[in-house]
Amino acid sequence: MLVTDHSGANARLAKLAEAKHWTLPAAPKAGPPPSGTAVINFDSKWTAEMIAGHERSVAMYRAQAQSGEDQDLRKYARETLPTIEHHLAELRRLQK
User: Given a cut of 90, is residue 90 above it in pLDDT?
Assistant: First the structure.
């Protein structure tokens, strides 16, 4: 769900940026896969990090949806915010 939703949102945002002639930052280069000792509490750490990231995203999208300068970007934020809020709710449910 996360990959599908985020990929779709990123594609819509890239299309908007292209139409507006906005420059997007380069995608970060993938590093080597983790190696060494497995982390015992990997799932709980991953979930906590995803929750923190989605909380930051919700705050940014809300601010953009309410008072962003560009009308099209405000619309994108309003349309995308419910999906991010749903992800956050699901991640919090997983954490319990």
Answer: yes
